[in-house]
Design brief:
- By secondary structure, the chain is mainly α.
- It has one domain.
- The chain is built from 2 helices and no strands.
- The chain is rod-shaped, with a radius of gyration of 34 Å.
C-alpha cells in the first residue's frame, strides 16, 4: 500500500489495539489531514456542479424570457391585424 493510503487507513484504525506495529502520531495526523482534504475536494466538486447547474438554468431562463417577449410582440401584432380586418369588414358592409 502506498504511503498516503497507509496513513489514511491508519488514521481510521481503532487506537486501543496495542499488539500491532502502528503508524506514529505524525503519520496518523497526516492521514487525518489527507482525509479532511479529500472530503473538502469532494465538497468543492459538488459546489462546482451546483454552480454549473445554476449557470445553465440562468442561461435557459434568459432564453425563455426572450421567447416570451418575442411571442408577446407577435401576439400583439396579430391582434392588430385582426382589429384592422374587422374594421375593414365592418366598413365594407
Amino acid at each position: 500500500m502506498s504511503e498516503p493510503k497507509r496513513c489514511i487507513a491508519e488514521s481510521r484504525n481503532d487506537f486501543e489495539l496495542r499488539n500491532q506495529v502502528r503508524a506514529g502520531s505524525d503519520e496518523i495526523q497526516m492521514g487525518a489531514l489527507q482525509r479532511i482534504a479529500a472530503a473538502t475536494e469532494k465538497m468543492a466538486e459538488s459546489y462546482d456542479d451546483l454552480s454549473n447547474e445554476r449557470d445553465r438554468l440562468k442561461t435557459r431562463q434568459e432564453w425563455l424570457h426572450g421567447q416570451i417577449r418575442r411571442l408577446q410582440s407577435q401576439r400583439s401584432a396579430l391582434r392588430g391585424v385582426i382589429t384592422r380586418m374587422r374594421r375593414q369588414r365592418e366598413a365594407g358592409r
